Amino acid sequence: MSKKKHILQNELNPDYYIYGIASSDAEFQLSLKLNALLSVKLTLDQPVKKEHKGNSLNFPTLRYLDEQELQISLIKNKHNNSILFSNQQAFDYILIFTGFEAQKTAASLISNVKKLENITLASPIDISKLSSFKSILK
Q: Longest C-alpha distance within the chain, in Å?
């Protein structure tokens, strides 16, 4: 009797949807707007850290996690004359949706984000273009 292997895809690996946002708003102002759009509460979390030339750089981060494991992270891409993702210089913020409902939430939000005051650009980012992406989500 032969044994069959069953592989369940995407059951343990959540999806990631990443957007870049260019805005003149401070991170708390932008988070208030996103909170209102999504009916969530992004709160200040541990900053994302990046080592650069022997220095540890901190990038302010706000996060939300719900009961269904949907996580939303708003990370300041430009802070104190440093850039977290240097190949994404056009964006002031990186907005990451993680979890099994991430695609639905991201799709409904991003079209409305583009309409907000002080948002000059909101665009999807290919995950392969973000160096060290996985370490940020720890």
A: 65
